[in-house]
Amino acid sequence: MTPGGRTIIIHSLEHAVAALKAARALDSAVTLASPPGAAAYTGALWFREVVKEAAREVPEADFTAILDCGDKPGLVMAAFRQGVRSVRFTGGKLQTEKLAALAEHEGYHLITGKLDSLDLAQETDVPDACRNWLAAKP
User: Which stretch of 3-12, 18-27, 47-56, 84-93 has the lowest confidence by average pLDDT?
Assistant: First the structure.
């Protein structure tokens, strides 16, 4: 489990809002995560703004957010510069150690492990899928 509760992979603002509404309704924490490697094609700014807007729409929700940067250290650095506080990195050991030291020093979070998650791209009833995922015991 990630620090912010069960993880849901979002692909849009609609997904993010549905996940936050489900978390709020269940009085549960949730982690909003981008799809694997999303920093390369959505960019850190897009992800940051989607998360900010979802938080504005569901201000009572308890959540964290993680941008997946794949194995690209430059995308991790760009995400930190864009104000994304938590990123996932799947690169090599030496790169991971350097990024982890930087993240710790600057107050960011570098996640390197696999995320047990619900990917909303596979779901037809997004709100129901979010509620079921968050209500299930890990």
Answer: 3-12
Predicted TM-score (pTM) of the model is: 0.93
Q: Is residue 27 part of a domain?
A: yes
pLDDT, tens digit (0-9, with 9 covering 90-100), for 14-38: 999 999 999 999 999 999 999 999 9
Q: Which CATH number fits the domain that encloses residue 91?
A: 3.20.20.70
What whole-number distance in Å separates Cα of residue 32 and Cα of residue 17?
10
Give the chain's domain count: 1
Write b or e for each residue in 126-138: b if 16 or more Cβ atoms lie within 10 A of its Cβ, otherwise e: bbebbbebbeeee
CA distance 33 to 86: 10
The reply to whether 1 falls in a domain is no
How far is it, in rounded angstroms, from Cα 120 to Cα 107?
29
6-9: strand order across its sheet: 109-111, 86-88, 62-68, 29-33, 6-9, 117-119
